[in-house]
Amino acid sequence: MYMFVVQILAKKGMLILPDILANSGGVVSYFEWVQNIQGFMWDEEKVNRELKTYMTRASNIVLII
């Protein structure tokens, strides 16, 4: 059923993205978890840099497929 819906939406020109790309909150939560395990805090610049890296890599993979 899922692929059927994706095909219909694609024919209408709609881009389908995985939820992790549409909502980066999960990635930010992962960063918080990593910081807690390692016992230190990243500054805002580091979080933004890491977020950009992860999201760009994931977006490129999805758009190639």
Walk me through what this model shows.
- The chain has four helices and no strands.
- The chain is mainly alpha-helical and 65 residues long.
- The chain has a domain at 26-64.
- It starts with a helix and ends with a helix.
- The model has no long low-confidence stretch (mean pLDDT 83).
Short description:
This is Glutamate/phenylalanine/leucine/valine/L-tryptophan dehydrogenase C-terminal domain-containing protein. The chain has 65 residues and is mostly helical.
- Rg, alpha carbons: 16 Å
Class by SSE composition:
mainly alpha
Question: Share of helix among residues?
Answer: over 70%
Characterize the largest beta sheet: strand count, sense, and whether it forms a barrel: none
End-to-end separation = 19 Å
Q: Count of DSSP helices?
A: 4
The SSE string, one letter per element, is: HHHH
Per the principal axes of the C-alpha atoms, what is the gross shape? elongated
Unreliable stretches (pLDDT < 50, length at least 5) are none
Report the strand count: 0
**How much of the sequence is in beta strands?**
under 5%
How would you state the average pLDDT, rounded?
83
Write the layout of secondary structure elements.
Layout: H1 2-11, H2 19-22, H3 25-38, H4 44-64
